[in-house]
Amino acid sequence: MCGIFGIVGHPEASNLAYLGLHALQHRGQESAGIVASDGERLRAHLSMGHVADIFTVPVIESLPGGAAIGHVRYSTAGGSRLKNAQPLSVEYVGGQMSVAHNGNFVNADELRKSLEADGAIFQSDADTEVVIHLIARSKKATFEDKVVEALSRVKGAYSLLFLAEKKLVAVRDPFGFRPLVLGRLKNSWVLTSETTALDLIEAEFIRELEAGEMVVIDEEGLRTSNPFPPTRLGRCIFEHVYFAKPDSVLFGASVYETRKEMGRQLAREQPVPGADLVIAVPDSGVPAAIGYSQASGIPYDVGLIRSHYVGRTFIEPQQSIRHFGVKLKLSAVRQVLKGKRVVVVDDSIVRGTTSRKIVKMLKAAGATEVHLRISSPPTQWPCYYGIDTPSRQELIASSHSVEEIARYVTADSLGYISLEGLGTAVGDRERNTFCTACFSGKYLTGNFGPASSDEEKKPGPKLVSA
């Protein structure tokens, strides 16, 4: 789910990269980095933590040049530690190179073992480093040809930015799993994960890169190609459900509007007759809750308040406070909830533990009934394409019915949007341009899902009675 940003042809490239990463902070909060080029050499600064804390004025001043790429990290392959922070940078026979990656290579372990057996020495746990080794070993003449040869050996999801001394290369995988857009700021070109980063720096949105497209920007200008064999589209539907910022335009559609439409569709499929109130689990559930209210005619109100000051770590009191972690992030508005039959809308249920705590919190605040409505289908399968979902046996919907989950979370009722309804909401009625593997188990690459029975044999999570 990481965020990437690149800019070429601007005297304050690193400063704009910092601003772009700030706009993409929702895509990763573990580490951040920027690499800048002055045309002769690359300079890098990477650190754990948030963008605003890492990039001070002296740090930005230490990254001169007219081109830069940046990355905010959300770890899937490789642990959350500094050695895995990106962009990853190396010096090799062809010069200097940095790479920022959003996605996940499903055959990275296999390639890594092969490269190590051939003498390669890895400096990180990140799957991204595999591509660096493949590029460094390529005998192709140009940098972009080396990149194409390397990527022809990997499988999975990738939106990538490569920075050399005098060149920036951007590539999106043939399925188009992860987003990547092109923008223009006067005489500068910008490439980034989401349009919200373009809005912040007042850059013009040009277009989304096509699946399998490569963009090369150097002293000769910008040129594009489609060097990979075409395949069906597999854009991540969960980007629309949760990951992307609501003000972004993603896969050709407004994220905010698609989330509202998910709520409207959810209300049509899973009504709650006689309910007094619709509320959201903030912030991700808000657009869908508004849509649910619009379609159902049930008034929308704010029944849960999210704290915007929760840090990465906190000291829990030794004397136990029930549901401490959730209460630190969310608080119930008693005056709104007391005596009401409440519909609460959230984007997903993973393990079910957080939903259970939220429902109990709402009832403790005086709600007489709590009806939980989810604007995505049951999450039954792990994602291998860049989302850190648990193993299948940890996903509550993989082994329990909707009724069983409702009893576990202590809701008076539970309803999910259907997969067909979600497809309709995102404008994909034929369901052939999005990846829905986390809901359907139909993976587009690799030997995953229902065809692999090992995980199906493992027991699901045990549900503790209310």
UniProtKB/TrEMBL annotation:
One of its GO terms (biological process) is purine nucleobase biosynthetic process. Mg(2+) binds at residues 284, 346-347. [4Fe-4S] cluster binds at residues 236, 383, 435, 438. The keyword Glycosyltransferase applies. Its cofactor is Mg(2+); [4Fe-4S] cluster. Residues 2-220 form the Glutamine amidotransferase type-2 domain. Its EC number is 2.4.2.14. One of its GO terms (molecular function) is magnesium ion binding. Catalyzes the formation of phosphoribosylamine from phosphoribosylpyrophosphate (PRPP) and glutamine. This is Amidophosphoribosyltransferase. The lineage of its organism: Bacteria, Pseudomonadati, Myxococcota, Myxococcia, Myxococcales. The gene is purF.
